[in-house]
Design brief:
Number of strands: 4
Strand content: 25-35%
CATH architecture: Roll
Largest sheet: 4 strands, antiparallel
Helix content: 25-40%
Order of helices and strands: HHHHHHEEEE
Radius of gyration: 21 Å
Distance between the termini: 51 Å
């Protein structure tokens, strides 16, 4: 599929950010540079969409100078391209309106990578510089591992089917 046909397909679909708007009327103008996101939430949504459409330059360009030195273009590109992006959920928004120069967006981005379902949960900090919003920093929220199913006792039969006790097989 040519890039032009691919772009036309994207333009007629709903925006990946979950706003309910068509991509060409939502995040695309920000990603192409036609407009600047007016709020931290709009920037967050457009950055998520940029991961979906693999617009790595936009992701880097919307980072504050403080963050740019920490980003690796190739790693960001691999994460974008190797992930199947499933959706963005905005949990909360603080600040970023009425002349504020800082804002926070707590979000969850769901994706599948290497056959594993993951949720990137982050409280992102945005700053306004020269009348433009930038991603400044973020706190990734780590989720505890939750056991699915019953706990296996040391003297129980090993679930691998070997017939041995768990402690003498997979549990050692």
């Amino acid at each position: 599929m040519s890039d032009e046909i691919k772009q036309n397909c994207i333009n007629s679909e709903l925006c990946p950010c979950g706003s309910g708007l068509v991509y060409s009327e939502c995040c695309e103008p920000y990603i192409t540079g036609a407009k600047s996101p007016p709020t931290p939430e709009a920037l967050m949504r457009s950055r998520y969409s940029a991961y979906v459409v693999h617009a790595i330059d936009y992701i880097i360009d919307t980072c504050h100078d403080f963050m740019k030195g920490m980003l690796n273009y190739e790693n960001t590109k691999k994460w974008s391209e190797k992930s199947k992006w499933l959706g963005l959920k905005i949990i909360s928004v603080q600040g970023g309106t009425d002349g504020a120069s800082r804002g926070k967006v707590h979000f969850e981005a769901a994706y599948v990578m290497n056959m594993y379902y993951k949720i990137h949960d982050e409280i992102a900090v945005f700053v306004k510089k020269d009348d433009r919003w930038f991603y400044y920093d973020g706190e990734v929220i780590t989720r505890p591992v939750v056991r699915v199913g019953e706990k296996i006792g040391r003297n129980d039969s090993c679930p691998c089917g070997s017939g041995k006790k768990y402690k003498h097989c997979c549990g050692c």
